[in-house]
Fold this sequence. Notes:
The complex is a heterodimer of chains A (about 170) and B (about 280). Chain A has about 170 residues and is an all-alpha fold.
Amino acid sequence: MIFIKNIKEFLLKSFPVIFLYILSFHNLEGASQFPNFTLFSFNLSMIVIYFYILKYPDYLGIGHIFLAGLINDVVVGTPLGSSSLSYLAMCFFTTYLRHVTLRPKMSSEWFTFIPAIFFSNLVFFMIINNFSNLSFYYVELLRNSFFTFLFFPIFYFIFHKVQMKPKQD
Amino acid sequence: MSDSRDDFVIAFRYSLLKKGAKQKFSLFFLILFSILIITLDKLSSPPMNFVRSTLNDFVYRVSYVAGTPGKLITYLVLKTKEHLYIYNDNKFLREEINLLKKKQFEASFLKTQNEYLKSALDFEKIKANKNQTIRVAKVMTDQISPYLKSLLINKGTKNGIVKGMTVFSKNYLIGTVIETNYYSSRVLLITDLNSKIPAIVQDTDINVILSGNGSKSDFILEYLPEDFLLEPNKIIYTSGKDGFLKTGMPVAETYLDEKNKIKVKSLTDPQQALIVHITRGEFKN
Lengths: 169, 285
């Protein structure tokens, strides 16, 4: 019984890491896998990183984020290290926010997600423009960023519920 | 003023250098490491190419396995849809068979006429290279990210795949190989923004560049003369001016959309390809 409880606790604590790796390997950009929902594609990895670095920094190591970024680069075909740097920029911005915030509120965290996405995407665009010949779809990216921001509260609620479970048990 | 600046500097420095309780690396170290990787990747030295190629092969395989449950769901949805529309499909296919039979007779007549005219003009008969090898590969994953519309296939340099080879699905051109690893390769789809194919429009001598726009039903024809009026139902063929692709391969066709605007769509959906044929130049089944 204790063994099962330990496994359950381990899985719940490792959930963000496992989830981030799955996202990187599968490149699951939200609902973009389903042709009828491509309009609502969003970057789930960004939400996971932002939420966990802000709320539960001990559950998601930045080493894992770096590695997940490398995997994402290989899968997507962007220059090696660009997603990693973009994710780390997001981490840096989020860590800074965590240190300067006195009374965290869901609404304020939601709105500070906008500059976080902007900062992270800016780093990414700069790398793509300077280190590769790739052209990309600005409108699609803008839509993707918008829906990433829009869906944040839903995942905030889900991840919060998931992480509350070990404490309740 | 100076206090607030100090607070900012402290928070900034803390975010970059401080390691958390369970963090093994500082953010600063990892950022520097990322920049180093990007620079090395840009330089593309042989050791870095080898590392990248090995990493690609490993990640593609794992990505293929990780994507299996998602593919299973898509497969089940597609199969259910197919069963639901089977009656209409059957009716449509019967009509199409009749039409194709008619066209086949026309084609055989034109072929005979063409051969006769060629011999009359004393043209050298171009024979297809029998040694040309066609490789069959399986699509491991398809990427529909905002950055690249590409496919990953399970054949690499081990199977004789080289950069620039042409990829076909159901006899239609769908892309070219842009990256090769030992066990896998990446195919840039014709729908991608980075794909530029020299082409000609049916029944004209207009040379254009067929450029992808992210969608199978919205290609861009670049360098089209200003006074040229594009008509619907015209096939766009490769012109072969790039030296890679052979002349006369059908790639796309023009059509009228709901707003009565002439657009260009692909003859096949590259994203739906499961098995592809890779060769140099033209593929004939």
